[in-house]
Write a structure and sequence with these properties.
The protein is mainly β. Helices cover 9% and strands 55% of the residues. The chain has a single domain, classed as Acid Proteases (Cathepsin D, subunit A, domain 1, Beta Barrel). The chain is built from two helices and eleven strands; from the N terminus they run E-E-E-E-E-E-E-E-E-H-E-E-H. A hairpin with a 2-residue loop joins strand 1 and strand 2.
């Protein structure tokens, strides 16, 4: 399990994002949500362990984030608070399924992202 921290743009906001290969889902703090993002609600809440406590997830939103001018879209569950990492409040947690879909890798040494920005810029992917 590896983690990396990176500032990302979501709408007109700059968010402090934790990319976590140990998390299956993605989460966004309710205070960090940009206006006008598409939102939804699962029919039944799910229980998930996050940050050392159990959370009930039901509300989610669709986000488009950007790193170095390259954008990627994903679904994130809305929660009240994610926590603090490197002395800053985390606004967004990007899970392994999003990182795999968009070919975002992690460099454990230095806790930084390894992006194949060529793929994101070209928007050409091979799924099968």
């Amino acid at each position: 399990m590896s983690k990396a921290l990176q500032e990302v743009r979501v709408g007109r906001k700059t968010l402090w994002a934790l990319f976590d290969s140990g998390a299956a889902r993605s989460y966004v703090a309710s205070t960090a949500l940009p206006r006008g993002v598409p939102r939804g609600r699962d029919p039944r809440p799910a229980s998930v362990g996050l940050g050392g406590r159990e959370r009930r997830l039901q509300d989610w939103c669709g986000l488009v984030a950007s790193i170095d001018g390259c954008s990627f879209s994903f679904k994130a569950y809305v929660i009240s608070d994610i926590g603090v990492e490197e002395g800053r409040r985390v606004d967004l947690l990007v899970g392994a399924t999003v990182m795999e879909e968009w070919e975002i890798g992690l460099k454990p040494k230095g806790r930084r992202l390894v992006l194949d920005l060529r793929q994101l810029r070209k928007r050409e992917f091979v799924d099968f």
